[in-house]
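Hey all, quick one. A colleague (J.T.) asked me to put the zinc ion job into the tracker so the inputs and the structure tokens live in one place instead of scattered across chat threads. No bug as far as I know, just bookkeeping. Sequence used:
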Amino acid sequence: MAIPKREMKCCNCGNYAGKFHQHYNRDTGFGICLRCVTDEIKSQGVETALSCYGVPGFNYPLVEVLTLRQAFTIGQYAKKHGVPENFNPFKFPGITAGALTQFDAYAAGFDGDSYENFSTTKLKLGA
Ligand SMILES: [Zn+2]
């Protein structure tokens, strides 16, 4: 059983940050709000955001991720860090952290043109 969710305060702006699982890199009771994490991803990149704040939808609100590559990065980080297999960091039904290998293979099967087009498509994760 995962650590229970709790009410979080944003470590950056101090606003309410939703009810999520505590991330080990933040002080107890502190997460990050949607607005701040979106800014962090834009300025620092998704890898930095994952390491500092954890997984969208698990440690903080679901964000609109920019590319398919970023979506992979998030899903693979989630798997590696023991976020439950059935956790879905994507808005697509059936695409869970546990299903990423299949999803990845699917994406790798694209030819150059369509992969490039697909990878730059904006994927909206979450509602
Ligand atoms: Zn904030």
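Adding what we noticed when we looked at it: Residues 7-124 form one domain. The first strand starts at residue 6 and ends at 10.
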